[in-house]
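Reminder: ligand-aware prediction takes two inputs, not one.
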Amino acid sequence: MATSVATHCPYCALQCGMHLVGPRDAVSVVGNAEFPVNAGGLCVKGWSAAATLTHPDRLVTPLVRDASGTLAPASWDDALATIVRRFQEVQQRHGRDAVGVFGGGSLTNEKAYLLGKFARVALRTANIDYNGRFCMSSAAAAASRAFGLDRGLPFPIEDIRHAKTIFLAGANIAETMPPIMRYFEAQQVNGGKLIVADPRKSATAQWASLHLPLRPGSDAAVANGLLHVLIREKLIDETYINERTRGFDEVRQVAAMYWPERVEALTGVPEASLVDAARLLGRGSSVMILTARGPEQQAQGVNNVLAYINLALALGGVGKPFSGYGSLTGQGNGQGGREHGQKADQLPGYRRIDDPAARRHVAAVWGVAEDAIPGPGKSAFELLDSIDADGGVRALFVVGSNVVVSAPDARSVEQKLRALDFLVVADFFLSETAQLADVVLPSAQWAEEDGTMTNLEGRVILRRRACDPPAGVRTDLDILSDLAARLGSARHFAFRSSRDVFAELGRASRGGLADYSGITYERIDAEGGVFWPCPAVDHRGTPRLFTESFPTVDGRARFHPIAHLSPAEAPNDDFPLFLTTGRVLAQYQSGTQTRRVAALCESAPEVVAEMHPAAARLANVADGERVTLTTRRGAATFKAKVTRSIRDDTVFVPFHWGGHQSANRLTQAALDPVSRMPEFKVCAVRAARAVEKERAE
Ligand code: SF4
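Here is what comes back for the chain with iron/sulfur cluster:
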């Protein structure tokens, strides 16, 4: 272990720069003041990140389930031989697609790339997808449709500082991503305004100039209402619309139906607040519209985002400095993880797997026949849901994901996993998903291997190896290459390092939308990260997209007429409230890492359900008592926090815990028809004071 190694945080998409300092058994974290995104700032998750490296729960030997049903230590050779034998048996009996692969949005670009190649070349299965489908897929699909390209922020994060008005839909960044607040604070000091749309008056909303407390599931109506006022008050940019877009007339007709009084009835946002927000947007000289999981994690998530993009286009800011539309990506490599081939419909470089030219290009890089690459597979939830169905997946390889906690309707997902013929999980802790596996492979953590990540701006950064993995632990790249060799594909996986994998990723991405072919580890080091697309080593990278044109057939962006639809489950007499889920500061995603860090558990030891005093009164629950929440999928009991900072028809529950503390045992799997995003943010729920047995849980 070097005394100080510059690397990046293992958690969210800000990918804050940090130094790991000290010997392996006493390693600590110091913020990296030279990395421009966080300039030394970290949140509590980042400060405590080193605790996972030396945690006593680390898996340090493969585990194989024995005849008694116990996960018992095994040699690597035995574990990998078992996997290959069982995968081959399943494929011989049920076809190649009966083995599925499930990746994650926290994997490095190299791992995401190699996992996609492993599925298509070594296993030759179509069925690979990843947990980013549960996170950023709606924003990605909407941006691709409107602009011809999806990059979370198509501008550098620095732009936030200079925007006159920012509209932030469904993000509580003050709690979940605190170092980003320095940009918003600077924007405020510069005289800028922030509007936040959120069913909760979150820490971010409390800090904003204006809060729109919308009803869960009503984003498209809010966006259409804002556009209605902008059109009525002649605050749109007709020149930009005429010169750089198509389709506004249809959108104008739809917006005409969303007058503020009607929007108040649909959304709960007071008419006066809606008009104030529209005027702040229309009169700002540079306006930025940002979305996050609030509008995106819905069965109409793509439409919600398209409605917000309509606003950004009508205001004429997309492609101009300090303006436009962006999505705040959540997972650490949520951006890069969706570009290089671990999605069911995708090949590296953000290429479509059903595009003959894309298949030809990638087949040539991989050295395989074009028709040997399978076609599109099942999306994440559909892959899991197919497990006990005819023609479905019978064996599954999960890498860096904890679907038992993070998938919607989690109890049914757990039952599906139990019904598999064979389950393999690669992880560094025995997650709730790993506990169900037939074979568990102990893999290296973030600071124990080199690899690139792509942050929420599209900046490719290098996460450096700072220490060796514990004895007995192998990297995912090593595991995939070994398995591929045992499956007969050794020559396609002859990599000596992550640098080798990145070089091939660059070639595979060349000419694609997400072109990394000009990026090298050396350039990342020298330049503090490189923004894609970067198609040549002498290309400067692309911090700002869409400045002259859009990558569509005619170079123009597309408006989309969006009619607001009701959520899949509306409250009724039996389930009278909305349930919405989200995150808290001290936990991350399914909690596999953060629930093991003492400092974080002290701060957020359990699920706390937030509810308004009016809802608490009806449920007969006092602050601090236990409340049982029941949906059509099941019930769970949590500690109640009674607060006026949430709508009186909505209960909020964070989703970082498993077992009887699992919020996702309550959520539903209604999927967006385009992105296949589940509706995590809205379902109908009943709340009641816990009875004695439930209180003990
Ligand atoms: Fe890590 Fe995100 Fe916190 Fe930065 S904001 S320290 S990247 S979790």
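The chain has 24 helices and 28 strands. The mean pLDDT is 95. We will return to this case in the review session.
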